[in-house]
Amino acid sequence: MEAAVRELREETGYTADDKNIDDLGETFVRGSQCDYTFHLYKVVLNQLIEVRLDEREHTDYCWATVKEALSLPFIEDLDAYLHLHYAERLGNNAT
Prior knowledge:
Layout: H1 2-12, E1 21-30, E2 35-43, H2 66-69, H3 78-89
């Protein structure tokens, strides 16, 4: 969990307490050019925060509902994992 807290702070400027981060699991993704393990975490915010992106890693962000997020362009096969993850947790109402 320490790594998730650190990455969140480094990439967004938001400092979370590890008690506020839920580990939602991981999955192995076999891509056409590389394979990787994708880790999914959830942080619940009481209000929207000012996000400060690390421009070396990200160019933009947006706030989105689960349904809106599932329509965004993702890296290869990530959208399929998110659909599966949220379909299981939301009773197939994610799409």
